[in-house]
Amino acid sequence: MTTTTTAATVVGIDLGTLTTKITLSSTHDFEIVRNAHGGHTTPTAVTFAGPTRPRLLGEDAADISRGDENTVWMMDRLLTGNNCCDTTDDSNDDQKIMMMMMQDFCRFQFDNHTNSVYIPNMDTTYDTTALLAMLLGRVKRNVLATIQRRTGKNDNNADNEELEFVFAVPSNYPQVTRQAVMDAAYAVKVNKSRVVDGARCLAAVYQRKFYDGQDVDDVVVSNNNSNDSSNDDGDEQKKTNKQKKTVLVVEMGHSRSCVSILQCGGGSGNKEEEAASQNQNDIPSSNNNVQVLSSVSSATLGAAMIDMALFHHFQSNHPSLSHTTTTFLTPKSRPAQRLMEGCRKLKHILSMLPEGNVTVETIGKNDTDVSLSGNRELLKQLCQESVANKLKSMIAAAVDEAGGIDVLGDIGSVEITGGGTRIPMIQDAVRHAIGKGEDFVLSKSLDDTSLAFGASLLPIDASTTNVEVTAEHEARRAQLLEEEMAMMERDVQMVRKDEIRNQIESHVLELRSARHSTHGSLLPSSDEFASYLDGNDDWLFSDECENATVEEMEEKWTQIQGKTQEFCADYLAATQADAERKEKELEDEAKRAAAEQDAEAGDGEAEDHDTRRLPFKRRMEIVLKNKTEANELFSGKNYQHAAARYAKALSHCNKFFDLSPDQQNEVNEVKLSLYLNLAFAYIKLEKLDNAFLQCNEALKCDATSVKALYRRATVLYQKRKFDEASKDLDEAEKLAPDDKALKKLRVLVEKQMTKQKAKEKAMAKKMFG
Question: To the nearest whole percent, how much of the chain has pLDDT over 70?
Fold first, then answer.
């Protein structure tokens, strides 16, 4: 009997300092995995909102520029600590300095000796592998959501989909870090995972883009020196293409860089020789057409060093920051975080423009805003030694490893990828390192997802793990799995608690506002009922609610629903009858609308194709006729058709032409009335957004219309935008201070604003003591 095994879906992952890129394998057309908000990357961050709140993972986490000590990011850096050494000849001191500098600008409390982070909100310390597992849990959910979207399946059992995570990492990642990455994958029930060198991934992408499906003879690698010669030279060109070409790939991210040299074409086809070469150099090639000759990685060089250089420059030299003390702009402080964010923005601007300016709010003297100005020459002065020259050294090291300077003689292309390579200073450094001028074109064929894409391209090895798993290691993995599953279950419980809390709050607010509804008179007017509502409000902000389990919350919600039924039986019965009646009315109106359409079609009025240039008097008669019909429909509570007639009347208002000033005033008065009536009809139909738009149109006709301001305030009140409603009432009361309707609505708005402020105060007291 033959057993059919479903192959795992390979997921390529590029774990970056700021964001993580994810792609699926060919099974799903190398789809880029979107996050839950629709973005193409997932922030490499985790936020702990508190012991009674779910974790905020990936795209839901707080922005790192605004996050506090309960938001953890740059997990790729935390995993390596000081263990990741550059593959250049540079001292390990650079790595330690870089790690210290980056930690200084992170508000979370990282212990470099234990590779763990203390989270005040949870009063718990988590090691970096567990933190990465939390992020990978979100990555897995995003992957499964993408697969479900592509396949059209909605399988609630996510574990049914077998996945294999393939992580693209720098070649200088130590074995202990590679093992930690795979352990984190295991903790989210991804039993198959691999860690591969980024250079292999880039070679695989280059192979697919320029060689797969083609004869090597037909591929022209060079993008700088190729030319279209006559057909007589065709054979000579093919002969040239058979020769080996060299491709230099420079990748610079936020906090790490990699330089790789690839050999393209001229493969020997001898797989035994190729395998021996791989064992000898420990850098496996992707195939016969594209092979990795050398790869040099740096765990210290990245675009973040430019941010830090700008930060220290402005901190020391900007006249508006001369007042600052050593404590005011300490890296972990809020002002320093804002200054750092401003430096990042300025760097991005200077990547596109020769000079730029960025304003940073409230970091100057007396909380004034500070303007940061700079140009590309400033970047060179600050970063030539620490960034540009180091990149040149990396390229030189890669060239030496690939066989010396002669390898550059066959250079066919220079590929740049990663955010750091968008900076002109970095591009100039690359050209200078290989002896090329400004006119040499740097190729950008490899985009920012290339590492993840390449990871998903690499074939599945016979073994899905590439680290030795001991009994002690198995126990550690089991512990990680158990802890992460427990935290996932806790998140589910906390989300359910929030849902029930929102249901209770909405229920209480609905009962309070129902007092002014059609059947509000059926609600109890006793103090007992008012106390019941106040009691539920108070309970929502109590310690009992905060510490309640999901079961206790569900029991409380059931009790509230039962008690409401006792208090409001007549009101609930009336609203239910209303709902049923409205549903029947909608069905009847649909039938009437169909009948009207048929009738209008018989009169040639199925659609408004009236482009006649009618005299003013005749056109106004049509407008008023539609308005009169609409008023009759409205009086009969046929709001849907009334709205349609008001809209039709307004459409005729747009067909007047060559109006005198008096005629224009008359039309404006009619339009004002129609907009107000149409807004009222939409309010009755509970289409508040439509009603709001009609009120705005009415105010365009007459900005001093008390009725329009009152009606818009009513809409805003129902939309629970009390502050905006209050502003409209302020304007209306200036025009009609004695209007009783305005006064009545004012009382309702102020009552809700008072309650809202009380709730905010209670919440603030709860959060901050």
Answer: 82
Rounded CA separation 60/88 (Å): 38
pLDDT for the residue numbered 660: 87
- Residue carrying structure tokens 């105060």: 761
Of 118, 124, 169, the closest CA to residue 295 belongs to 169
| Helix runs in 197-300, H state only | 198-210, 234-242, 271-281
The CATH fold assigned to 475-567 is Substrate Binding Domain Of Dnak; Chain:A; Domain 2 (1.20.1270)
Give the per-residue pLDDT at 740. Answer: 86
Spatial distance between the Cα atoms of 207 and 454, rounded to a whole number of angstroms = 10
CA distance 450 to 199: 10
Predicted confidence (pLDDT) at residue 489 exceeds the cutoff of 90: yes
Q: Rounded distance, CA 25 to CA 699, Å?
A: 56
Backbone angles phi, psi at 97, to 5 degrees: -65, -45
Burial class from Cβ neighbours inside 10 Å (0-12, 13-18, 19+) for residue 313 reads: middle
Q: Give CA–CA dist 671/667, Å, rounded.
A: 6
Tens of pLDDT along 133-163? 999 999 999 999 999 888 877 655 545 678 9
Boundaries of every domain in the chain: 9-197+466-474, 475-567, 613-768
Pairing outcome for strands 163-169 and 9-15: parallel
Tokens for 202, please give them.
């880039």
For residue 386, the 8-state DSSP code is: I
279 three-state secondary structure: helix
For the segment(s) 9-197+466-474, the CATH number from 3.30.420.40, 3.40.30.10, 3.40.190.10, 3.40.50.300 is 3.30.420.40
Q: What is the dihedral of CA 41, 46, 48, 52, to 10 degrees?
A: 60
CB atoms within 10 A of CB 733: 17
Q: For the domain 613-768, what is the CATH superfamily, name and number?
A: Tetratricopeptide repeat domain (1.25.40.10)
Task: Give the DSSP letter string of 28-46.
Answer: GTTPBPP-TTS-SSEESEE
CA angle 242, 243, 247 (to 5 degrees): 110
Confidence of residue 595 (pLDDT cuts 50, 70, 90): low
pLDDT of 3: 44
Q: In the structure encoding, which two tokens stand for residue 140, read together?
A: 């897995």
DSSP string for 610-648: ------HHHHHHHHHHHHHHHHHHHHTT-HHHHHHHHHH
**Element holding 72 (H helix, E strand):** strand 71-73
- Name the residue type at position 180: A
Report the distance separating Cα 327 and Cα 309, nearest Å.
19
How close are the terminal C-alpha atoms of the chain, in Å? Answer: 68
Nearest Cα neighbor of 54 from 110, 137, 154 is 137
Q: How confident is the model at residue 325, as a pLDDT?
A: 54
Q: What is the pTM of this model?
A: 0.69
At residue 260, φ and ψ (nearest 5 deg) are -125, 145
Please name every residue paired with 251 in a beta bridge, in sequence order, or none if there are none: 258, 417
Enumerate residues 6+ apart whose C-beta is below 8 A from 188: 133, 136, 137, 140, 484
Q: What strands, in cross-sheet order, belong to the sheet with 109-111?
A: 109-111, 116-119, 124-127
Mean pLDDT (the chain, rounded): 82
Query: What is the side-by-side order of every strand in the sheet holding 290-298?
Result: 290-298, 257-264, 245-252, 411-417
Angle at 113 between CA 110 and CA 118, to 5 degrees: 30
- Tell me the per-residue pLDDT of 400-418, one tens digit each, with 9 for 90 and over: 999 888 888 878 889 999 9
Highest mean pLDDT among 228-232, 303-307, 467-471: 303-307
- Angle (deg, nearest 10), helices 376-383 and 304-317: 100
| Mean per-residue pLDDT, 584-599 | 66
